[in-house]
Amino acid sequence: MKFGGSSLSGPAGVAYVANLISNYKPPKQPIVIVSALQGVTDLLLEAAKPTPESYALFTNLSQLHLTIARQLCLEPHIIESISPLLNGLCLALPSHDSDLIVSFGERLSSILVAGACNNQGIKAEPISTLDLLITTKRSDRPSRILYSESRSKVVTTLEPLLRDGATPILTGFIARTKEGEVTTLGRGGSDLTAVYIGDFLGADEVTLFKDEAGVFDADPKINPEAKLLAHLTYQEAE
């Protein structure tokens, strides 16, 4: 299951996503991939720029995540686990490394979603794909996931959790190069993460949750007359 930022809009969005995840009962066992909270990636890209506003943006981002955590009444240890990430983000700002700085969005949202799931009785575990997905060098744009190296890490890490009945809450969009540098997977990177994880683990299906009813023959945000397509072949999708 993959949820984008539009699904993760404030405490209500995070709680709704956790509720959707709770609908999956044994023998079905979900693996969840999340994007950053709505609007957070854009704020982080702004914070990565060498401007005086960077630390003001950091303060706003810190308050946003901590406020949502408190509004969701997450367990104290979950809220406490957010602070080290925020400290890491603050230390990363002077580098102006946009990939590194942007990566904190997904890492923070995975903690919030896992915490909301635990509130609903789901045994959820936030996991960063920085420790799982290996890509080509950052100079290669977009970065390409290295299949065999990544599959080995994903299977070794996630299969024991799944056997134990846990629901992994994975970060989308982010990975590391073979040299250990943080990198991102470009537009649609969280969708790509979900498809790779599903393939690595032999999932029955990959579901990408969106804020539209489906695929239209035009952009419905631009053309209100756009028609929803009931059926679409793989060739037509391409």
Task: Summarize the model shown.
With 238 residues, the protein is an alpha/beta fold. It is built from eight helices and eight strands. It has helices at 10-22, 40-47, 54-71, 76-92, 98-119, 147-163, 189-200, 234-237, and strands spanning 2-3, 32-34, 124-127, 134-135, 167-171, 174-177, 182-184, 208-209.
Describe the structure.
- This protein is of the alpha/beta class.
- 47% of the residues lie in helices and 11% in strands.
- It is built from eight helices and eight strands, in the order βαβααααββαβββαβα.
- It has helices at residues 10-22, 40-47, 54-71, 76-92, 98-119, 147-163, 189-200, 234-237; strands at residues 2-3, 32-34, 124-127, 134-135, 167-171, 174-177, 182-184, 208-209.
- The strands form two sheets. Strands 3-5-2-1-8 form a five-stranded parallel beta sheet, sandwiched between helices. It has a three-stranded mixed beta sheet with strand order 4-6-7.
- A hairpin with a 4-residue loop joins strand 6 and strand 7.
- Helix 3 packs antiparallel against helix 4 and helix 4 (76-92) runs antiparallel to helix 5 (98-119).
- The mean pLDDT is 94.
Strand and helix layout:
Elements: E1 2-3, H1 10-22, E2 32-34, H2 40-47, H3 54-71, H4 76-92, H5 98-119, E3 124-127, E4 134-135, H6 147-163, E5 167-171, E6 174-177, E7 182-184, H7 189-200, E8 208-209, H8 234-237
Parallel strand pairs: 1-2, 1-8, 2-5, 3-5, 4-6
Antiparallel strand pairs: 6-7
Helix pairs in contact: 1-5, 2-3, 2-5, 3-4, 4-5
